[in-house]
Structures are given as structure tokens and as C-alpha cells.
Records
---
Amino acid sequence: MTIAELVEEASLEQVGYSSDQCLKCNVCNTACPVARVTDLYPGPKYVGPQAARFRMGRNLPAQGKGGPRLKSPDLTVDYCSGCGWCTTVCPAGVKVAEMNSQSRARMKAGGRPKLRDWGLGQTDLTGRIGVMFSPLGNWALANRPLRRMMELTVGIHHAAPFPKFSRRTFQSAWKRRHKGDVGRPLPGPDKAVVYFHGCAVNYYEPHVANAAISILERNGFQVIVPPQVCCGLPLISNGIYGEAREKAHHNLKILADYARKGYRIIGTSTSCTHTIKAEYREMLDIHDDDATVVANATWDICEFLLDLHDHGKLDTGFGRLDEDLPYHAPCQLRSHGIGLPAMDLFALVPGLRAMDMDHDCCGIAGTYGMKKEKYDIGMAVGAPLFARVRASGAAEAACDSETCRWQIEKASGVRTRHPVEILQAAYLAGDAAAGRAGQSPAGSGGVAPVTSH
Amino acid sequence: MSESYACDVLVVGGGVTGAGVLRDLARRGLKTLLVDRGDFGTGTTGRYHGLLHSGGRYAAGDAVTARECIDENRVLRRIAPASIEDTGGYFVATPDDPEDYVDAFPAACAAADIPCEEIPVAAALRREPALNPKIRRVFRLPDGSVEPWNLIDGNIADARAHCSDAWSYRRVVAFERAGERIISATVRDERSGTTARIAPRFVVSTAGAWAGQIAALAGVEVTMVPGKGVMLIYNQRMTDTVVNRCHKSADGDIMVPVHTVAILGTTDVRVADPDVYDISREEVSALIAEGEKLFPDLGRMRLLRAYAGVRPLYQPPAATQAAQNRSISRAHTVLDHGEDGIDNYVSIVGGKLTTFRLMAEDTVDVVCEKLGVTTPCTTADEMLPNQVPGKTYWLGHRLAEHEAEGGGDSALICECELVTRPMLASFLDEHWPCSVDDMRRGTRLGMGPCQGGFCTFRAAGMAAEHAAAGASGTTDDAIVGYLRERFKGTRPIAAGRQLQELWMVLGIYGGLGIESLVDGGPAADAREADDARR
């Protein structure tokens, strides 16, 4: 592997040459949540820009006839959780996490992916089957002997957090609800937004979508939910690039039409929106016009709401929520580089005492903390966070990313919700105080209130 | 005079040629001693390009050298595979290279028995996509890259197994003559200051570019015309294949992947004194500009340092003086100083690293004839010690070995080049006393992007531990000495990230209170480089 080949595989400026930028300063090692808790992972500097220089030589000594010529010497990079803190903190702009993801993919190249890693990447497939047989699936995932068996056979830790499958997908519920809308002209881009729901909302947490849609509609936006597939991040994390690229192109084709017309694309899963904003280009090396126009049009929901507020356009009719609210900003949200918009929004809610838990990573990192050999590492990474959440004595916590929510809820025992669910509760409290209790906020009809969970 | 040492042959100059001569003499049953004024491989050998020639570069102009190169290329792959990376070589015709040279190239290679196969440009670009897409033709030849210090070590180890020895840091300060013979040499231990008397039956000068200076001690004139060649080291390999321009040899037309880096070279400028030369920013810029004809993105890639070596070029007194060093033959010559009135003294001059073994064989043949020894040369047939037949070097081996041990930073002294504590400890056991720079040559310590920033204090600490009592005062000196040497190479290229790196490293050592590093020397260099950029 030469720099030039890396460049072909990845993106030129973004990743291929970026190890040239490394000053060896160790800021990434200092910030790495995984290296802090385990010796199995030597740290982002070592597996990233440092090891990169040794991965170039493809001139393997002959291994006998038909033997492999190119073999990745890597082992430890598999313990990178992909949280992305290294890239976020690097003062020189080295794309460390992206480099690690690529070396992991190369390390696994040639061999077939582990059944588990393949399965964890297939969020659409597992989600669809899970929803189809949801009572059975939910029973199985809660069944301890079965989970032990799953750990032994597939390698998913028996205690790893799993959400419950919904009884129907958000997509099908939405389609049924909006059957009559087909053919109706859309309002202009200042009056409508596109919603990218992601897999978590589709298969497990439709209540998050409902809260988000209700808030958007309350603020005067019609919500468009185009057909869409998994963003591809779980595939990227598990080193399955080709399929991730297919998902990306599928989504880009649909979203680019809207983006070109000026519609904004809003997501409630902060990792999906980051994938669309950054990783389609940086990791999957998709550099067409679609990728750029969609990336520029994509917003994390809290980022979008805060922007509305900055322009004086956010309905601030929040009622009083007299509670402590521990908040965890997920790694993927930090990678957006948009600050902590949820915290700013919480500050608009009277009585709400939101507390930034100020911890880097909960340890789940997508699907990392679910894996048998990494579960303990993930739990150790998140331990201070869980302790802080528990010590707060709060009844619920908030976090923008689904897998983080599941991890925090499971590990701390404190119910953890998406910021939009909290905001929706605050709107409802405001409505109640104004004597409009019981009314559905924007009259969209049939949008379930958050309490339906 | 505290020491006296008798031997059959004294070899002066511990580059790879000296080591080769030592091995050959030892294997022919002559008790031999090799001395060098510094560590082995600190002259031209350690400052060379890393290229194992296929001979293609000389095929069109110097058929003798070309043939020697390909023969020795084959020999080295056989006897020292661990020192060689089988990169293969491309000779590429860029739009700037003359048609007739390119057209005649395959036939010239064939005439010198050099395998040369034209491959489709697209295939070459697939293998090396950083290459200039505008290249017109590509020929594949068996070039490679070679590790010189390892090669020297192997030759010395083999000689030691044959009743001979090698001493580093011993400078020859005088020869004593009796009539037409040298009867003894006085060597000074450059570290302790003590001197010793060597009484050899024969003296061989393998001092290369310094051969004139050694000859002068014996009262003989040897006119060397040292040719400075500047080379640039890139942080990473943008190519896994040696890439040559297919044209008449010129500046900046070869890129060699060596270990973790890629080296662009070279120039050829005559210098008066092989110890005194400078590298200017203009030379650096001119090299990059030429290099971009091979790899158009070079300007954006990170440079680690610039360095220069001096070729041991020789012009016989009778020859018409060539105006340009480029036109002086790269062939080697054994000078029998019997013609100058000394019967037991020869010098070997000219030549190339690729042909060092042949140079040694030719030299030792002359010595043996004079000493009446008839044992044939075996250096081309017998492998160097600790080699596995056919097992050539692979860049990934250090990473693979370190990873197999669980990776981890704790045991790493030099992070950039993956030099571990056990590697250094065994080096210190074998080579003590030694400087941090000696540790570098043995292990590649400090040769990565931080250029010693993070490993020098650790390595100096290990050396201090090794020295045990009373060494504390010298640790600072060891650090400063090494880093100044590293910084010397950074100076001509200091810009962008490497300049930032330099400042950060200065900050680290300033923070450690090592003031002498900050005063004058490198800090001033960094400031100057900063100013030059503005």
C-alpha cells in the first residue's frame, strides 16, 4: 500500500496524505477514551499516523507460490472504537479516526467479515426482521440464557444494551398516515424540511421521530419523509465499505433532489447526520456533486432548532419543567463541530436544570461496546459518566445519539431520552399552562405525544 | 603508546567497501584490522541514496559499470537478502526525456545483460498511482533498495568469525615508513585520546573520498574529486518501486523507497573538502522541481530532512580533466602505490555501493598477489551471517512484530520508527560505548517525522543507565550532540509541518532545561528558516 493507493481508496486531502500532518504531539493519545482504560489499544497516534508509514510496503518477501502478497500487519487497530475524538482534538488536522477505520477495513480485507460484524452492520435487515417478529425478538433479546448463547455463538455480549423493536416501522406508519398527501404540491424550502429518520427511529424509537416532527410542525415546517435506507455508518464501523457505499449512493440520489431545491435535511440521529455531512466524502470517497450539495444541506435537529432561535424564529412557548437533567454530548455530535446545541436549547426551558456531564464517551461507540471482547472496555470508558448520571439523582437524562442512550440507560439505570423529547415535553407543559392541554400542538393529526413510550 | 597490535593487513576506512575488504581478507586467511575515525558507515556509505542499482542507469553510457551493477545486484540478493528490499525499478520516460535515449534504452540494457521489460503505462500507474500520468513509456528493471549499516555489520561479523577485527572511533594519525614499506600506523582513540601502534604487513586504504588525506599521511598523492550529492527524505513512501527517469543521468531523477521513507536524489557538485559542504535552499528547490516531473504532487508531501554524501570519484593525473563530475566514470580503480614508491600499500577509489563486494574482491586480489596468498575469493558464494536464503526485507516487519507482541507504547523508545527498549538494550550491550547517533545507525532511532524529538531523551537515559555511575553530566551533551546533528538536516527544508515540528521539539528540550540546544544552534536556525519563509 502506497500513499498514492491510499489516496485512491480514500480521499486525497482528507485522509491519504493526512498522516504527513502529524506532529507527534500526543494530544490524540491524551484525549483517547479507549487508550485510557485498556492496554489492548496502544492509542490513536500509534495505530494512526505512526503505523501508516509501515503499511506502505507491499513488497512482501515471497511467501511461496500463490501466497498472499499484501498482508496487513495490523492487529491492535481493531480496538479503536471509532469515537472520533482523536480527529476532533488533533491540532494539525490529521484524520486519525478515518485512517483507523480504513486500516481496520484493510485488515479485514480478503477474509470474509465475521458474521457478527456483518450482522451489526445490517441495521436495515435486522431491524426489518425484528419489527416483523417483534414480540418474539423482544422476548429473545430479554432472555438471559438466549443472550448467553448469542454471546458464545455470535460474539455479542450478553449484557450489551439492546432496544426493543417497535411493532411497526416508522416508515410504514408515516406512509399510512400520509396516504392522502401523494401528489399534493410541496410548500417552498422555507416552509418544509426533509426528515432523515435513520434506523433507530425506524425500527426501535418512533417516539423520537414523533417528537421531532411535532416540534418542526409547531414551528411552521411541513415535514417530508422521503424513502431512505440506513446511512451506512454501521457498515463503515464494521469495515464493510462496498455495501456502505451502495447505501450512501441510494440516499444521496434521493436527498440531492431536495437539497438542490433548497430544502434542508434534518436528522434526529446525530451519527447519521454526521455520516451524511462528513463520512460519505471522507470515508467512502464519494466526491460527486450530490455528496457536496447534500452535506451542505444536512442539519442535526438541535443545530437546526438553535439556528431558528438565533434568527428569532423558534417558538419559545416552553412550559416549566422543574427537574435536573444530566446531558451527555455524544462523540459523533462533537465531530459535527457545532458545539452543544441541545444545552443551549435546554436553557430556554424554564426550571430545567440541564447539566453537561462533561464526559468524552459512553463507551458504546455505535456497535463497539456490544461486542463480546470489547464490552468491558466500553463499560470502563463510560464508567465515570454512568456514576455521574446516577449521582445526579435525576429521573431522566438526555443524549442525542441512540446507541449512547441505550448504553447510558442500561448502565446507569436512568431513563435516557433524545433532547427533542424533552423539548416536546416542555412545549406540552407550556400548552397545558396556557389552557390548551390535550390539544395536539400543530394539528398534524395523529402524532403521538412523547408519553406514548 | 599504550597498545601495540600486529596484523597481516590494516584497512583504513570503515564504510561498506572497507567492511567488504575486511571480510574478503579475513576469509582468505589474513588476520586483518579495520579502523575508522568514527562509527562505521558514517562517511559516504551512510549518506548514500539507498539504491541497489540494476545497472540500467549506466547501460547507455558506461557499459562496464552497468554490467558490474547487475552482476553484483544478483550476488547481493543471494548473500545478504535481509539487507535488500526487492522493490523492483521503473525507468520512466517523461515528456521531458529525449526520444532517442528512450528508444535505445532496451538494447543498451540487453547488451549489459540487464533484464529490461517494457510494461504498459497504465499498469505502472495502477501500481504506482502517484506517478506522473503523462509518462510515455515504462521499463521494469531489477532495482532494489539496500540497507547499508546492516550490510557493514554483516561483513564485520563474518570477518570477526575469521580471526579479524574492526575498531571504530580510531583515527590514523601517522604512518611510519622504512624505505619502500609502511611498517606501522599510529591510531588515536577519538573518545579516550589514547593512541595505539598497529604493525601490519600491508595497508589498504578504503577511505573513499578521504583517500587523498590518508595517502598524504604516507607521503603519496591521490587526487580525489569528491562529488557532493544532495538528497531529500520524504516522510512516507509515495512509491513502493524505485523510480528512475529514463534519460542521461541528471539531478533529482531517482526516487528510492527506503524503509519508511522515500529518498529523492541527487545532485553532483564537486567539493574541495569532503568534510565541508553546505546544502542550500536553492538546491532543495531545484531537486523538488525535477522530482515533480516524476511525482507531480511532491510539493505537497512532507519532507523530513536534506542530506548530502560525497562520491569517492577519482581522476587519474594523466586523464583530461572532466569539467563536470557527472562525466567522471563510476567505475572503481585499485591504485597500487608500488608505483609511488610504497610496496605494501593500495587504495581503492571510485565505485558504488552496489559494487562494493566486487571492489573488495579486486582490491584483495592485488593484496594477495603481493603477499603470495593464493586462496580464492569466496565472498560471492558464502552468505553473510544471520541471513535466511531468499528472505528479503519487508517494511511491515517491525509493525507486525510489535503488533504480535500486543502493540503498546510502553516499550517504545522511538515511536516513529518503532524502536523498542529491548532492541536498544541489546544494541547497547553489543556496541557500548556508543553515542545516540550510533544507536540511530544501528536501529533507525530518531529517523522519523519528529527527528529525535521524542526519543532522544529516552535513548540518552538508557545510555546513561548503561554507563551506570558518573554519567549524569554527559547525558545533556549526548542529547545536544544528537539533536544538533538531526537539526542540521532539517534546516535546509524547514517549512510547513517540519518547521512546526522543529519548534515543538525545541520547546520540549527548552522545557527540560537543556539550554545549549536553544542558544545559538538549532533555535537560531529555526528562526532563520522562519524569517526566510516570510
---
Amino acid sequence: MSSQDVALVRRQAARARALALTTVSTAGTGHIGADLSAMDILCSLYFSVLRGGPEDPDRDRFILSKAHASAAMYSVLALKGILPEAELSTFGGADSRLSTVVSTRVPGIEFNTGSLGHGLSLGAGAALAARVQGSGRRTFVLTGDGELQEGSNWEAAMLAASRKLSSLVVVVDRNLAQKGASTEDINALEPLEDKWRSFGWGVRTVDGHDVEALLDVFHGAPLEESRPTCVIASTVKGKGVSFMERNLEWHSRRLTPDLLDQALRELEHGIDA
Amino acid sequence: MASTPDCATAFSAALLELARTDERICIVNNDSAETHSALGFQSELPDRFVDVGIAEQNLVGVAIGMANAGLRPFVYSASCFMASRALEQIKNAAYTNANVVFCGFVSGLAYGALGGTHHAVEDLAWMRAIPRMTVLAPATPVDTVAALREALTHDGPVYIRIVSKLDTPELFPADHGFAYGGSEQLREGEDVTLVGTGLLTSRLVEAADLLAADGVRAGVLHLGSVQPIDAEAIGRAAARTGRLVVAEDHVLNGGLGGAVAETVVRTHPVPVLQIGVPNEYAPIGPAEFLYEHFGLTPQGIAKRVREWLA
């Protein structure tokens, strides 16, 4: 990791936030709160960590389990040149490829996720496949925190540790919110670090908007030899737009043109930096 | 007819043989290697044998993840657990068009006295409701191995309903090939056509012999490919004999009988008699007792057909 990488990721994250905000505002649909909480994680992965493009069979695998962060994902793919940026304006529209949870219709998307809690099993399978094929490629899964309430995650967590899948990294977008409430009020996840550790994973909690910390843990994984890695990324839903941050109404609220302008103005500084 | 090794044993032996030269082939299973005759694969090719333990959702998810890398995972599970508990993952495998072969072992009522939790009599309805899912139900050991070879070349997910624990007489020559979307006319007949799949096909052949002794000329049509289904052959049978009988070890809602009825309604409407598991749970008893209870024996089928034609 270099300081250039950190600066590049920050700049791309600001651009991707602007694209995602414009995308959901134009479409009048989407999950902007989740898009923004995941954005620094996504950009850290795509602009510094993941190796190999969509056509490379030995590419690192990335699985977006929190598939409703689709506007974020598509914006990143557009900045990577994998998806035409102009296509973002079709998000959720008639005959668009861009479903509002990600799908394999879009180049660069590995799986049809969206039903929550499926991503970690897919990731365990992808990591097992790399082992079968004798490849050193890595697999990253980005999961929401609320979806850890799905039991299949823990089936996969058990298997990944049991099989010593050290090439597997799960990143938990720990924004503490599911729809309009706190995960801790609905079905508490804490103590979350202890849960993963007790399942046999190496665990680190980082600030999910601190690019330097994210790159450090992603590049350095596995955290512990012969163990899969869990990065609990503490995030803020709506991060980067002052009136959205920590406001649970913004899980899927409509962004009007006036508010979009205000949000884009806030992001300008990061883009120009 | 002579008894042969059961379909599950033949399937697993053939898969191991193929896997020796095809390095894409893997097994993903849920703590059931011995039940489904996969111990040989496990000991000979341990790197390509994944036991996820008793966790069917993860079972299917892991297989989809492996298929993404170009591997050819075969999901080994009793159909009662896989097809129901992991149905959503299976649906998304189809949505992703993953090359996963779902091997539903111990299908139908074969688990006998274990009771309703273990009977797999809804799987055809669930699987054929899924777009892109190929659904195969081979009838004999040779047919089962042929279905395996077909599945391996297929692009997209395949569900194979495999007969376990119950012997079936062999109906096909060793070089028999499986016709994707096709069928096998096993007996010609003028009065009625008996339509079946899986375990029931060989029983229909025996039932046709019993009916012949009574002067009833019954054709037998084996629909090993349940989805896609051979609508042309079904229409031909309907036109020729004017009546169809469908027998299956499956509930009457949405299984082969449903598929055949949907087809003839579109192509050549004729009366269809469905023999299967009605809308109820089986009593307790060994598998053969349950098949007798629901009239799914050659004698039971012949009796129902005689009554229907009378």
C-alpha cells in the first residue's frame, strides 16, 4: 500500500458517492444510506486490493452480499471502466441491466445476491475452488450487519474456519442499522467480534471510512495464519452527506433534486482534492 | 427381470470414474457420503470432496461459489433436505445460471418409516417451478448414469431425482443415451398410455404386462426429462390412446401428473388419471408398504387402470 493508493481511493470514493447519489436521485429508487456506508470499503477494494479484471479467470473474487448497495457497486464499476457511466441513468428502469439489487446481468458481478445472508456461503465456495485449482487468489465478501441475523452465515463461518480458508475475507459493513432501526434493538449482534473469534476467525474492527486502515487490513490479511479474516468496518449510514449521516430515514428515502445539489456540493471538495 | 445394483450406487460409481479424468468434478455433501455411496470418491479424490456438515443452505451456496470458478460441483444430499431447506439458494443458482448438479438422493417414499420429514414427494413441483432448472428423473441404473452424463454437458443447473434404497429392473441397454427434453416409448399400446418417471417407470412396464393379460393394450411412456418435458410425445400418446395415466411417487399437485396435464390441456386435451400421493401425509411403515398403500405397485396401478377404463 502506498500513500498514492490512499489518495486515489479517497478521490474515487468521493466521485463514486456523487455518481451513486445522482443515480438514485434520477431513478427515484435505491438504498442510498447503504450505498454511502459501504463506499469507502468498495473503493478500497476496487482501487487498491482486488487483482484481475472480470475476464481474468484467476481474478480475486468479490461478492456483494449486501446487494442493495447496488448504486454504489455500479458507480464503482463505472469508474473502473467495466460499466459505461451513461448506463447509470437507467438504474431500475424498464429493460435496464441495472436491477436495484445487483445481478450477473452486469459485467463484473459474480453472483445474483440480494436475498440477504447468501454471500458468505458463496465466498466459502469460491475460496474452496481457488484451493482446488491451486490458485493463490483471494475472496472478499462484503456483508451488511443486519443480514448476519441469517443463520446460513454461521454455517459458512463454521466451515470456512474448519477448512482454514485463510484466503477468505469477510467485511461487515457495521452501520448498526437495518431499515429504520438499530440491529441491537431488533435482534442484537453484539458482541460481534467475540462471535467471529469464537467461530475460529481472525478479527479486527476498523473505522470503515478510514481508507488507510482499510487498506492496511485488506492488504495484510490473513490476520492470523490458517484462519479466515473478518473485518468489522464501523460505518455511518449515509456517510459523506451531512443531512443523511446517522439518519435512519435515509435507508431508502427519495432524494429530491434540491437535496441532490446540496449533497453534491458537499462532495466537491473530496473530488477536487 | 433381474435385479441390478441400485441407481444411487451406479450414479456414484460413474461419477467417480468421470472425475478421474475430469478435474472439474467435485462433490459437495452434507454429512452423507456413506448413504449416497460417495465414500470411494471421498477417499480417492479428497481434495475435490467437500463435506459441509449438516448445513444445507451452506451446502448449496458453497457449490454455487465453486461453480463460479469453472468447477462442476455435484451437490449430494437426500432430496428431502436439499430441495426444501435450500430451495431459495437453489432458485438463485438458477437465476445465476450456475453449473451445479443437484443430486436428490433417497427420493420419493424410500425413507419409509422415518416418516413425513424424510419423504421427498414435493421436489418435482418445487424444482420445475424454477425457470432455467432442468429436472431429470431417471428410471434405472443405466438411465441414471446416462442422466449424469447429460447433466455434465449441460449449461445451467440440473436437478436429478435419484432412486435410492429401492431396486429397479434394468430397462435399457448399456449404451443408452439420455434424451434432454425427450422421452422413451417403452411399450406401444392402443387403449391407454401409462406415463411415468423415476422409480415408477419400471412399475408401469410391469403394470402394462398385467393389463395385457386382461386384454388391455397399454402403452408406456417414460418421461425421464421432466423439465423440459417432451410435449410432442405426450401429445402423440394422447392422440393415439385417448387416455393417459400418470403414476409418480410424488404429491398430485404440481408433479409429473401436473406437468402432463398442463401439456395436454395446451396440445390435445384428454382425460388424465393421476396416481400418486394425495394431499396427505403417509402412514408409518417400510417403503414398500407405503408404495402399496398409495397404489404405486404394478398390481396397484393395474387395478386402478382397470377400474378407470371399466
---
Amino acid sequence: MSARDNILARLRVAPGSGATPGVRDFGVIEALEWTPAERAERLVRLLRSVNTEVHETTQATWPGLLRELCVAKGVGRLCLAPVTPVGAAASEALAGSGVATLAYDRDIEAWREELFFEVDAGLTAVTAGIAETGSLFVVPTPDEPRLLSLVPPVHFAVLSRAVIANTLLEVLRAQGYGATMPTNVLLISGPSKTADIEQTLVYGVHGPNQLVVLLTD
Amino acid sequence: MNRPATEFKERIQRALDDPQIRTNFRRAMDGLMAKRAAMFPDADELEQLRDLGAAVRRNALARLPGLLEKLEANCQRNGIIVHWAESVAEANAIVLDIVRKHGGKSVIKGKSMVSEEMELNHHLEAHGIEALESDLGEYIVQLAGETPSHIIMPAIHKNTRQIAELFVEKLDGVEFTEDAEALTAIARGLLRRKFLDADVGLSGVNFAVAETGTLCLIENEGNGRLTTTAPDVHVAVTGIEKVVETLDDITPLLSLLPRSATGQGITTYVNMISGPRKQGERDGPREVHLVLLDNGRTTSYVDPELRTTLQCIRCGACMNHCPVYARIGGHAYGTVYPGPIGEILSPQLLGCDEAGALPGASTLCGACGEVCPVRIPIPKMLVRLRREAVTRDAASPVKDAGAQRSTSEALIWKAWARIHAVPGLYSLVTRTASAFKKMPVVGPLKAWSSVRTPPRVAGRTLHQRMAARGSTK
Amino acid sequence: MSHASLATVGRPRRVYLFGTCLIDLFFPDAGVDSVRLLEREGIEVVYPQGQTCCGQPAYNSGYHEDARTVARQQVSLFPGDDPVIGPSGSCASMMKHHYLDLFRGEPDFAEVQALSTRIFELTEFLVRVLNIDLKDLGAPQKVAIHTSCHARREMGVAGDAEQLVDSLGNVERVGFERQTECCGFGGTFAVKHAPISAAMVTDKVDTIDASAPDRLVGGDCGCLMNIGGALEKRGSSIRVQHIASLLWERTDEPPSN
């Protein structure tokens, strides 16, 4: 017998194994409901409480704001996805700004060192916001791969107010994943941090030390 | 007392005698308790959430064998390679085999208590493989050659100065600094290169979702995301109990875990992984392995009461609120899992010979049970395992049941029971005691009297006074 | 839990007192004062002389057979429907909650179960069943309360002792740091893990001393013995007292003659 068979066999003989368990009542989470304005206010407040820079802006003006922020922060190279609407708008706005843009269009193996040591910032879209916890629901894609929001020291994230939900439960249900999830789904709630040295809060450990959210209408 | 029990007491004494340990833990636990309380301002909502959290975990356990099969099937469909291990030896062998097939030199690790349970680092190092912890707390503990003293905050026993001295001693070219930010930057700089060079990234799992074949990991630093994304191979090790049925189940557990653990509304990152890099994707590991470890969990599962231990989501709230843990710290327990959850889990994983004395180190104050986000009846389990520790019973599901039984203690309780079950005898004993008014300051009373005056026996017992009043039957 | 049974109890004519072994030997005043308080409310108090100990020490030590032997001796002493009052949250909880585990599967389980619904901690009974009205005749006094962990977390009666003390007009209730933390008694824990217990009670009396009450009252004599002994050992002037004694002492009208 394999380890698998032995483990499953031991579990199967246990009394009550396979019994119909009690109902899970998700009411306490489903009851968390805010108005759109409250959701945005809560998300912004919670994100800021963990050192996130949040800028309330618009669909029309955020690329310009991004340009200003990049210049102010001294971002020399910004990695983005030129083929997505967010990436295209940013590329256009940054043209001539002195901020170089580059795409994550190669496998990581081809430019590992460069990504880790020579890219100052990453730009991604955000699929949804979560008011309850102040989180960004980010789904990496072939154009915006997993390390884009993780390795560069600054992460710019573009989120529309229209997609701020109440809870993670609501977002997951709305996505309708069924049995198939994307390779990676992330909740990001602030810049990377640690409190492992005598509970002293320090931002910027292995992930970005700045999370900058551009909240559009 | 057997050897492990004696050594337990020695470690306790050493911890109590160390003012640094007392100060570090007290300060940290006070802070954690206050932060948790502030995170749950609405008591009713908290209780409803705990009901839901418990229901989610009980549901998963009630259906455990079926859900494990479902998890396996869905992981496999997603391209995750699933392994099963009955013992830590089997799990270590599986991990070693994977590492050897992929370069075989270095492993970067995200935080994983199951890997501590496996003593995986030792195993890999014994086979010439570098296993480096990347969570800052784990990194500090590894540098010091220690083990975690808390399941969430591994280096909580150290203060900044101690960490600063450790860095100077162990790391090349590091200047002494007590600036936490500077210390963090030093570790970050050193580990950055390691993430690039590691052959394999190894992590734990917080929840494994059966219906989607998804591994959920939570963390603050980003080291967990790097560990599971940057190397070519990701190996996740987890206990078989970590499965939940549906994606819906994740939200309540996420709502409870960080708030209970560290008083954070949510961790910086929640990382849901459902497979290796797909065609067209630019990063992520090309192989993902899931190792499902039993190591005694099926034994606990067989007993409905012991099974409640498997509800645990490893938040550490029980230790944060335990007045005993606050005084002796995590290392005194001598086990991977310290504090109240460790006191009930360790005898089940290791047996009563090795860990049967642990459940005794509790006043049964109930603070642990009060805060447990998934309603594990920890105090009740402490009493159950105290019974297992002193009751020889071949049919007991707990290994080495009765190993802590001593003939003298058993005789004392027999005598005590005799006195208290026969009113005439009880009356004789209590009247005699009150006639003498004082009890001899020997044995237990001597220890008692180190910081207290001895209890004074009243001149007349309540029985005598009530008899004199006449309202008696 | 107890609320359901409260509704069915109403205001009884008669109650039993379970005096507890610690009160019997070390704090009999607490037992007598409990009886006085109940009798002043017009309730007959029956004190079965066959009672000894609830069995908790052996139960918590893992010697469940011995605990059952002793518990069984108590169960037989309280027949009928009258409530059983315990001036101890810990012993009351043992009889109300833990007996159910101790006797599960035993032939007398039904009897134990019936008894468990009639168990009340003293302050719970005074407040929730009797709705007692106290007239404070005492001098101004600062009182701190230490509620035992079992009274607080298993019986859920911490608020009742507070309400009673607050109803005394001349008493100022004072809090202290980490008030809800265990005092370190824990029954046999104080013996088996004497060094941890000593560390805990030392911290406890530090915080009590710092808030400088005139008196510390509690509903559980184990804690009082522990805290009181530690206060006395360090020469503190703060005295400990069972809450029943405080209530009686401050509300007992001297006989008019």
C-alpha cells in the first residue's frame, strides 16, 4: 500500500468521517455592505494606514499623474505591459519624460538580473478592490507577470472606483472561477513589511517598499 | 517524572530566571493582545465569525478523506505534482529527491511550521544542500542556530540589541546598528541574491482549496511570493488537515487569522497558487509540488475529541494570550509548536512519553479557548491529555498513554478520593486539621511559601459552623 | 446555558449550599456569610453535611476515576429541584460543565445532567435570580475585584460580582492592570509548576498593589488564598476577602434594641 492509500484508509475508518457536517453560514460576511462612496473611503483609509500612497485621480488624468510621480520619485525605468489599456496609456504619457518604459515580454530566465537590480518600478492594473480589508485583488497575466508587482522597489497600481467590492467573498463569487483558478491570484494590502525585529514595523523587505495606488473614477 | 518532563521543568526554570526572556515576551504579548482586541471591536460579529471559522474547519475535517482526494485530483489537473507522506522521514525523502533532480544545491525557504516539524533544514544540510530561511524572523533564528519561539513571530524572544549583535557576529562586514530598518536592509540585501540563485523554493501552505486545487499562502514580507515564484521549482509542504472545501471558505479564515495572530486586518500579501507556469506565462516555477504530510494527524483524526486539534489554523493567538507562555516563552516547551496549541498537539504528534508533561503547564485559565478563532476547546483538550498522560490504556489513540503516571501520585489521588468520598473520614481529617490550625510547611507547601504565607486553617470548619447553626440535613 | 435554567427557577423558597472544600477548611466565614445573605432574602438554605469536594483537583490532574468517585458522593446529596449555590465559580463550573464530561457514558449520567442545570455561582444567583437589593452601611472603601478565570470564562459571571460591588454606595471599585489575567493558582498547578505560579502571582500582586485598593475581593477562595498569601508575604496592607463576606459585612444592620 502507498502512503496515500494508508492515510486515506486510516481517515476512512474514523468515526464520523464523511458525515454530513453542519451548514456554514456566511451571513456574517455577506452582511458587510457599504455604499460605493463608503467602500472607496474605507479602502483608501485602510491602504493609507499601512503606508500606501493613494492618489484619487481620474481615467483622464492618471497617466499624467503617473508621469509626475515617476519623475518626483526618480524612477528611471518603469516596467509595464504596453499592450494593455493601462500600460498603453502610461507609455504614451511617459514619452519624453526621461522615464524609460520597458515591457515584461521575455521569460524571466532571460532577464532575471535586470529585473531584480535594474528596474525601479512596476505598473499593473488591479482587477478589483476590497473595502473590508483595504486590499487590491490583482491577477497576474502573461502581460503583467507575477514578479512585476513584487520585485521592483515601487509598485504603481491602477484601480477604478467602479470595481471596489465589499469583501473578498464577493469578489471571488463575482469572478465565477468555478473549478479553475488563474495560475496566480494576489491580494496586496500595502507595501512589503516586517515586524520581526522586536515588533518594530519596517516597510520594504523582500517586496516593494512603496505601493502607489492611482484610484480612478 | 520521566526525563522529558524533568528537562521541561529545567527549561522552565531557566526561562523564568532570564529577565530578558521575561521582558521580551511580556512586552510582545501585551502588544499583541491589545492589537487583536482593537481589531475585533464588535463582540457579536467576532462570535459569528468564530462560529463560521469553526464550521469551515469542521466541515473540512468531516469530509477530510474525500476532500484530500478532490484536492489531489484538482491539483493534478492544474499541473501540481502531489506527494503523500506518512512520516517526516518520508516527507524529507520526497523533498530531497525533488531538490536533487533540479540542481540539488540550494533551497530558499518561506516560513513553514511543517518544515520545522520535519527538521527539513537539517536533513537537507546533511545531504549537502543549503537551506536558507528567507522570512526575516526565521532568518534570524537560523543565524542564531535556534528554533522559532513563536509560530508566527519566530524571533520574538530576541530584542533589537541581541539581533544587532548576532548580525555582527555571523555576517561578514556588518557594522553594529540597533536600527531595525538598517538591520532589515542588511538581511534583504543578502537574501536578494539567494532568491535568484536558489534551485528550489520551499514553502508551507495556510489553506489548500479542494474544489480548485489552490494553495493559499499569507505573509507580509514578500519572501513567500518570491520563494514561490522566482525559483524554477516550488515545493509546498503541508499537514493533511490544511484543506478546505471551497473558495468561499477562504474569506472567513482570512478574516480571522491575521487579526487573531498579529492584530492586522489582513497580511500584506495573500498568494493563491493554482499551478506552475503555463504556456505563454513569463514567470513562476515550471514545477509545483505539494507534499501532504500525516505525521500522526490520522491518529488524532480517529478520536472525535482529539480531532478538534486539527481545526487549528496556526494563528498563535492562544500563545499570545497564555499567561504561562508569556512568562516562559516558546523555547521552554522544547517542541516545534509551543504554547497551548503545542501543549495539546505535541502529545498527539510525539506521544506521552516525550510530551505528556506539556499539558500540565497550564492553569486552565481558558484564555486560549476564549480567543481561538476556530473554537478549538483547548482547555478541555488539556484536561483530556492530562488524563491520557497518566492513564495506561492500550486502546488509547494517544501514543505512550500513561507514560507520565507515577505510582506515588496515583496513590495520593487514591487516598484523596477515599477521604473525600467518605464523609466520616473527611470530617475526621478536616476537624483534626482545624484543631491544629496549622499545616506543616513541607513538600508542596514549602514551594507555595516561597512567595506566599501558608494558608491558615480556620478554627472551625464550615461543616462545624453549619452544624451548630442547625440549618442542615 | 444558565439563562435558560434561570427562567425556570424563579425565586425559590429553598436552596442548597455547596460550600467547597477550600471554604470549609480555610474560609468558613465566606460560607456562613453566603448563607446569611441568602437567608436574609427569605430563602431557606440547606447544607448537606456529607459534602466534601467537587472533585476538580483530581479531574484537572487527569485522575478521572478518582475524581468521579468523589463527584459521585456530591451528586447524591442534592436531590429534588432546589438550586445548588456554590460560592465559587470554579467549583460551580466543575459541577455545571465538567461533570457532564466526567460522567458521560456512566449509569448516573441523567442524574448528573439534571443536577448541572441547578448549579449557580453565588453572585450569579444573587444578581440574576434574586435581583438582590443591597443597602450599604459601611464606611467609604476602595475595593478591587479579582474574578477567577472559571467564573469569568466558564460561568460567564464576571459582571455579576461587579454589579454587586457597584451597588454598594460607599464603595469605590478600582481596577488594576491586566485584571483579567490568571493569578497563577490553577489548583494543583500551583504545586506542580510552583515556579511559574510564583512568577504569575508576583506579577498579579504588583499590579494590585499599584492600584492601592483597601481590599481585594473575589468569588473564588483558591485565587484569594494565592493572592492573599502573596500580598501578606510582602507585607502589603491590602487584605483579601470573599465577596460574600464583603457584601454581608457592609449590609448587615446591627440589631436594634
